[in-house]
Amino acid sequence: MQFAFAGYVLDLDRREFTRGAEAVPLGPQxxxxxxxxxxxxxxxxxxxxxxxxxxxxxxxSESTLTSHINAVRKAIGDTGENQHLIRTIARxxxxxxxxxxxxxxxxxxxxxxxxxxxxxxxxxxSAPPLVVPDRPSIAVLPFINxxxxxxxxxxxxxxxxxxxxxxxxxxxxxxxARNSCFSYKNRAVxxxxxGRELGVRYMVEGSLRKAADRVRITxxxxxxxxxxxxxxERFEDKxxxxxxxxxxxxxxxxxxxxxxxxxxxxxxxRHKPTESLDAYDYYLRGMANLHLGTRESIEEALRxxxxxxxxxxxxxxxxxxxxxxxxxxxxxGWMRDRTEEMAxxxxxxxxxxxxxxxxxxxxxxxGTGLNHFVGDLEGGIALLDRAKMLNPxxxxxxxxxxxARVWRGDPDGxxxxxxxxxxxxxxxxxxxxxxxGMAAAHLFAGRFDEASSWAAKSFSVLPSFxxxxxxxxxxxxxxxxxxxxxxxxxxxxxxxxxLRISNLADYIPMTRPQDIAALSEGLRKAGxxx
Length: 530
Description:
CATH superfamily of the largest domain: Tetratricopeptide repeat domain
Number of domains: 4
Number of helices: 21
Helix content: 55-70%
Number of strands: 13
């Protein structure tokens, strides 16, 4: 049996320890100590465990054990200060934390007489190249600790481990495991090299600096094929509660990376020859059009999503996004045959739920579909809550959950959901929808100035968004700004001259009588016909 790590090989059968073609001398007990740590790297081993295994229970002083641990660290290029490979766990023991590959020692090794460069070439030739997955693939590398305090390594590593864990819960993304990512700790790496070695299309790298009572994280998303920087951002907060801060940093970084990753994949799909498109690329192109929010772009998005479904009839997210396109057509008054499209929206929604019960993206949109097409608001909220449980960093699950709470009559709960969505994804292409949701929540809470302010932000991005113009007109009217309300109503009649007080329910799925009454009163004052 052989253990390979960080350029070293420990051969248990030959009791040899080598780095490349060079033998590294180890005393018998130092060799056994390293071997025990490698064999038990999945757990923390206590000092008693080490004494029992290496000294067979004989009484040895703690200083003897410490000196042997230091000898192991020296042999593998580690130190008690850096602890890149062997981590001291306070009051618990030790753990080997480096990436390790186990090999069958009976296989013929590369001859030790070869020069090191030749031996490395032979190893490279024997390993088949990794194929980059069709779906987004990413490696989150260890962040650099810029604090000047090695004791902060645990916090830096903890943030990165949490980011890896959070991204691993995002269905549809191939995420390299923690141990492989951490094999690059304290190494100068090239993005293209990482992409080749790990078989990924993207990598995340960053740094952390802690000074006084502030912690600052800088992160960036890199295209591993070209080395191009696709996104970079800085996150900063107080270090009052280090564990709460770790959670906050993780949510901020993952929430910012996710939409950037989608944008990069959309851009890649746009440049892919049409004849080579597959289901995922049709889905991405559909998403690019969906985010634009216009009537023409939603129709094109729907066409592309049906193409994705045709190529993969079990693509849950494609069904859900197609249902979402029908929702957009419903709330903007674009349906040509309402009965037929409502039935199709319900079919797509149910199919998305059936196929994607563990897919947060599918459940978030399908939950909204249950509300709009089936009239099941509570069932929709249950699906949205499940989406949040599956992926707490999915901004869409939060802002769509906010809308569901607006329609249920819980404006304050809705505001909390929209706030979290905006925090998770501050540059989200659907930010105008979140702002419209904020406007609705404040409107039904009686905060008309806040409602008109949020609605104006959404309107500036998409002036054809009927729902937000409804909120502008109603909030101005209810605040007594009749001239502003009438101007908004003129715009509303241009967008959809068929909207009436009597058919509001065809557009907006409100359930609380006082909310229906308030919105109707505001629109009536603004000049909307009965």
